[in-house]
Write a structure and sequence with these properties.
The chain is an alpha+beta fold. The protein has three domains: 77 residues, no CATH class; 128 residues, no CATH class; 82 residues, Homeodomain-like (Arc Repressor Mutant, subunit A, Orthogonal Bundle). It has 17 helices and seven strands. The protein has a five-stranded mixed beta sheet with strand order 3-4-7-5-6, with helices on one face. A two-stranded antiparallel ribbon has the order 1-2. A hairpin with a 2-residue loop joins strand 3 and strand 4. The termini are far apart.
Amino acid sequence: MLNESRHTTAHSGLPNWTRQPNQPVTYPRMFVVSAVALGASRSEILQRAGISAEILDDPAGRISYLQTLQLFEAVHAAIGDTALGFDTGLRLPLTAHGNLGYALMCAPTPRDAISILERFWHLRGRGTLMTVNESENNLFFEIEPEVPIPPSLREMMFSSILTSMIRGMEFVLPMLPNKREIWLCGPEPEGYRNRQQQVPGVRFNMPRAGLVLDGDSSWLDEPLPTANPEGLAQALAHCERESALTETDNDIARQVRAHLVLDQNGYPSPEQLADNLCLTPRTLRRRLYEQGLSYKQLLDDVRRRDSCHLLATSGMEVQSISELLGYADPANFTRAFKSWTGLAPRMWRRNNS
């Protein structure tokens, strides 16, 4: 339970989504583990944050972003050193990031992994915005708070995120450029020197926070040793479903798109979708209509997405792709595909495979 009397005033300006239970407990729990390893009292941290041990210990548990901030405040009060964030990042392997982490491991190339990270960042990084900027010899993953937070919490959170990111990259990317740096906006914390051997290459008092990779960018298109097409398809499907479940009821279009996942039987029918979303078919149609949408429009959107993916990454014949997508007549698929891309499927494949 939240201790509202203690925290409401300090965070009264935060938007409503920060009060929804859309944050995995994985990360805040690891902050507590790191703090306890340095001598802090777990029970005192949880009491100060107003969070029960039962919630934090549930592997599938979720708390709100507001509760996460409250826990970070309690951890910082107990330790007093934002360098704790580096400890937390070191404790978070790629597998700690759930379906998203598995999808990144299964991606065919680093460039594909980056695209997946951008697409599903909100599953694990809600409260933090990430943008990726690529130049000829430089790749910069910039992060910034989605809502204003105190500098001490920002530095502790960002040092954890960026340390975890670079550790995950080093795990799956043997071709990663040797020159890589973590940038943080705040001053060097007191405890960083004790962690410098484990987290080298950190620059403080920088104008932006992020992860910098310098060097020839050709490594972005090299095959990953952990690539797994079947595992990737499963992980992406789970990410889509997780994305739908973390959205509010008002975003019905995103929820429908997340559940319109192609399998060997094609796409779910409107009735199956409604059942998956715990709605009646009539209510589903009404909610889509209120947003100026229909099942057919959203189905066309995912058919376009999946057709391009299958043409670019699989050896399936165009007719087989057409049948899998639910077109009884391949000519109808060709007409639809040309309306989406301006090219016939075979021509598009030659240009993009």
